[in-house]
Structures are given as C-alpha cells and as structure tokens.
UniProtKB/TrEMBL annotation, chain B:
The keyword Repressor does not apply. CDD domains: PYR_PYL_RCAR_like (cd07821). The lineage of its organism: Bacteria, Pseudomonadati, Pseudomonadota, Betaproteobacteria, Nitrosomonadales. Keywords: Signal. InterPro entries: Polyketide_cyclase/dehydratase, START-like_dom_sf. This is SRPBCC family protein. Residues 1-23 form the signal peptide. The keyword Cell wall biogenesis/degradation does not apply.
Length: 357, 178
C-alpha cells in the first residue's frame, strides 16, 4: 500500500496522468509486481484521480468533432456551453471517450491519424498514426482497447490504450464505418457500409463470428446499455435495423430521409435517429415499432449521444455548425449550442464522471 | 460564368459518370453562399420556389422541364452548352421560405448532392438575404491518387461557380422586374 500511495502522490504533484507512464514507473520501482499487482494499482489510481479532481470532473462533457476547422468543441453538459476548443488533426470525424483513462480519441480522415486528448485539461497529448482513413472509433468498456475502422483499407484495427501501438488488425467488409463493443468486452460490432451488413467480431480471437445482413448502406451503429439491442442506421433505404442480440431477431423500421446515426435511451425503450436530409431526429418506440415523434434540429444532423444523467440528447449538425440539445423526457428541443464548422461527432461522445465506476 | 460553363462542358465531354448510389469518400463538402437583394422577401421567394422556372434567374439554365411522378416532383434543367441536370424537389416550406432539392443525375463533377435555398428578411426594409447551401462529395470515391477533375477542388469550384452565378442572376432578376 505504501507503493500505491507513493505513485498517487507522484501523479498529483506532477499532473502526469498517462497510464503508460504510470505503468513504466511501476515497472521500474516495483519490478517484482505481478500483472495482478498492476491491475490493483490501476484501480487505486483511478480512484485517486476521481477524488483529487472532483472539481473539474463531476460534470459530463460532450466532445464534438468539427470536420471543417480541424477542432473539437468540448461542451459542459451541465451548463450546455462550450468550455474548450481543441486543435486536432485534419478533418476530424470519429470520436470515442474513455472516462477512467481521462481520454478522448479523435479520428482524422485527412491526416490519417488519431488525436488523443487528455480530458482533464483538454489538451492534445498524443497522435496515433494510422495508414488509411480512420472513421469510426470505439473504446472497449474496460478501456483497454481502442478500435478504429479504416475506411480505405477495409479493416479494423485494435489499439492498446496502454501502449498506443497497433496490436491487431482484421480485414472486414467494404467501407467499415461505425463500431460498438458489448458491455462484457467480448464482442465488437461493425457496420460495413458497402457490404450492407454488420460484422460480429470475437474480440479475444479477433475473428469474424457472424455477419448480419441489414438494410442498404449501414453507417451509424448503436448498442443499448445492457447490450441486448443493436441498431444499424441504413442510409440508403431510410431504415433502422434493430437486432435482438440474444434471439437474433431483426426488425426494420422506417425513419427520415438519409439517416446517419442513432442512440438508445438508457431504458432501452426508445431509439433516437438523426435524419441528415430532413434536418430532424426520429424518436422510435421500439416495443410498438412506431415513430413516437419527429423533432426538428439543425441542418444535416449527424452524430448523436445521450447523457443519461441529465436525460439530454446531443446532436451534431454538420450543416449549421452547431449542436442541438433535446430533452429526452419531453422530446422537445432545449437549446442549440454553437460549435465549429461541419460538426460531425461520429461515435459515443459523452464523457461521464469516473465516480462510482 | 465562363468558368462554370467550361467546367460543365468539360465534365460532359470527359465522362458520362452517372451519379450512382454507391460508395463515396468519407469527407462531405459544403458550399454555403449568401447574397443581399434589394427586393421584398416575398418577391424573391416567388422566384426561388418556382421549381419549374429556374431559367428565369439562373444564367446557365436555358430551359426547365417540370415533371410529376406520383407524389414526387422532378425538373430537368437544360444548360447553355446543351447538358442536362435532373433534380428532385424535396420540400417547399412556405413559413420558412425554404426549398430543398437534390440532384438525381448530371454530368457534373460531383455526386450525392443535396441543397437548400432559404430567403430571409434583410437588414433593411425592402431587402432580402438569400442563402444557398449544398452538400456533396467529389466524383472519385476511392483511395488516392485521385484522377484529375474528380477531386474535392474540382467539385467545390463547380458548385461555387453555380452558386455565384445563380445568386447574382437571382439578384438581377428580383431587382429588375416589377
């Protein structure tokens, strides 16, 4: 325990919050530690972070990629105001957040890399080179692995968040776009836009277990909190495919024109879908298989994520360079937040506080 | 004006690449142009929403043919150089004075194009502001190297040309006619 305390104080005094650094420190200072020892230390490390930084990390944040100005807007979802704008690589699209690591990952299509943001001070701390066009990103719930879909080379790569070196890669369907990981970390789902299916990948063996045929041009993907419901957003035929991952039953539902992304409500009863060419969000009632309501938002809405604590949905509008906020209890538009040129935010972009995790 | 016609002509002669619904690069392009017109919004809107008469204000268009197919409305624009563009009307919103449409097929060097034109009250009485916003992709949808004439720049320049000429033409038409 003395060793743990020692490491925590180093972190606090230097504000060095890189897990890689800490692991290296541990390796040099405590050579005889086993992997289990490191794991325990990691747990205590995350606890110490949440306690020492409670003032800056109690609010949730939304990380919005702005393709047209190569930045990320950071929104405090408590106040619905932009609190930081961070320069990243060229033409950022995808986003993934890791609350325990205090990291946000941004895929930059044109500079062919992934920007790594320290979410405690919202600064750029690393750049991961990808030879291809990274689009979709997802972080595993254990935050050990970052998955990136490489659109040009039709592959998915798994990057260790610890070493940020590519650890594994897998050839996949044509134009892999959105990805999500099951809550138990075991399954990775990817929409392959040009092969009209979802690839189901075993994350341990990194092989394709199954292919699920969905609608035309699936782009966005969403998984419900328990992992029971999976949704693909089928751009070309204006539908959503909802798959029960336990029974494999698929339901297709009509939404608006050229839908792009979707997010489940925490209770898994409704699905929110952005319709890029209708400038709206469709709210689907999953049990009754119908549309509850359609909400007008900004122009060309793309990425969507729901903050489960304030029950607000955040929608990045590519056309109007802002974010629409919807109250998911009333399904009314609450406010619009000015962000940056061509906001996209493709992926789960709400960073939750680490307390309680 | 010459530039846009030249570009259109070039694209028509060099390729008959159809606007297919298949793959496109991951980076959509936006062109967003506005102009102030010394005419009442209602008058400008009357010109803009008249989907079957674009030749009344766009200098590159010589003829507009309106067609109904079931619920859908299409127009075929004939350009000065003889090329044609098939467009589909998406919506006409009278309250917001906003019209949305998309290109179904054309010989132009871009793809997956959709756009809206919105008319708003100008800063001064009797003035209007018109905004024209388009979203599209370059023609070439695969990995670099990108063939000449199918890149982002060519696509952007072409749409810039269409919008600049169109908005200038709309201003002229709205300000001159009574």
């Amino acid at each position: 325990m003395m060793q743990f305390f020692h490491i925590s104080s180093i972190i606090e005094s230097n504000h060095l919050l890189d897990t890689e650094l800490i692991l290296n420190l541990m390796k040099t200072k405590i050579n005889n530690f086993t992997k289990i020892g490191i794991f325990i230390a990691m747990s205590s490390f995350s606890l110490s972070i949440s306690s020492c930084s409670a003032d800056t990390n109690t609010h949730h944040r939304a990380y919005i990629t702005n393709q047209g100005e190569h930045t990320v807007s950071v929104i405090d979802t408590g106040t619905n105001k932009v609190i930081h704008t961070i320069n990243v690589g060229k033409a950022p699209v995808g986003i993934a957040v890791a609350s325990r690591l205090n990291r946000a990952y941004v895929s930059n299509v044109e500079s062919q890399d992934i920007s790594v943001i320290d979410t405690q001070n919202n600064t750029l701390v690393n750049r991961i080179k990808v030879n291809g066009a990274p689009v979709g990103l997802a972080i595993s719930p254990d935050e050990k692995t970052l998955y990136a879909a490489d659109w040009f080379n039709n592959r998915v790569i798994a990057i260790s968040t610890n070493s940020t070196h590519t650890v594994r890669e897998l050839s996949i369907g044509d134009a892999p776009a959105g990805l999500v990981v099951s809550p138990n970390n075991r399954t990775l789902y990817i929409t392959n836009r040009d092969s009209n299916d979802i690839a189901v990948i075993d994350t341990e063996t990194f092989t394709i277990k199954q292919r699920i045929k969905v609608g035309k041009h699936p782009f966005g993907i969403a998984l419900s909190k328990t992992g029971k419901l999976l949704a693909s957003v089928n751009v070309q035929d204006d539908t959503i495919s909802i798959i029960n991952t336990e029974s494999n039953v698929i339901e297709n539902m009509k939404v608006g024109y050229h839908p792009y992304c979707a997010a489940f409500s925490a209770d898994e009863k409704t699905l929110y879908v952005t319709n890029t060419q209708d400038d709206s969000v469709t709210v689907l009632d999953i049990a009754n298989k119908n549309t509850l309501t359609t909400i007008n938002v900004g122009s060309t809405p793309e990425g969507i994520s729901i903050d489960d604590t304030n029950h607000q949905a955040y929608i990045a509008n590519w056309g109007s360079n802002n974010v629409s906020v919807i109250d998911t209890k009333t399904n009314q538009l609450l406010t619009t937040i000015k962000t940056g040129e061509k906001s996209r935010a493709f992926g789960q972009f709400i960073l939750s506080p680490t307390i309680g995790n | 004006m010459k530039k846009i016609l030249a570009l259109i002509a070039l694209s028509l002669t060099t390729s008959l690449v159809s606007v297919s619904a298949s793959a496109h690069g991951p980076t959509p392009i936006k062109v967003d142009k506005s102009i102030t017109i010394k005419a009442e919004p209602a008058k400008v809107w009357a010109l803009v929403k008249d989907f079957g008469n674009m030749q009344k204000w766009h200098p590159a268009v010589t003829n507009t043919k309106l067609e109904k197919k079931g619920e859908d409305t299409f127009r075929t624009l004939t350009l000065k150089d003889g090329g044609t563009i098939l467009e589909k009307l998406r919506s006409v919103d009278e309250a917001d004075m906003k019209i949305r449409y998309e290109i179904v097929s054309s010989g132009l060097p871009f793809t997956d194009y959709n756009a809206f034109i919105v008319v708003k009250k100008g800063a001064n009485a009797g003035e209007s502001t018109v905004q024209w916003v388009g979203r599209f992709y370059r023609l070439y949808k695969l990995n670099p190297p990108i063939p000449a004439g199918q890149d982002d720049e060519t696509a952007t320049n072409t749409v810039n040309g269409i919008y600049d000429a169109g908005l200038a033409g709309l201003k002229k038409a709205a300000e001159s006619s009574k």
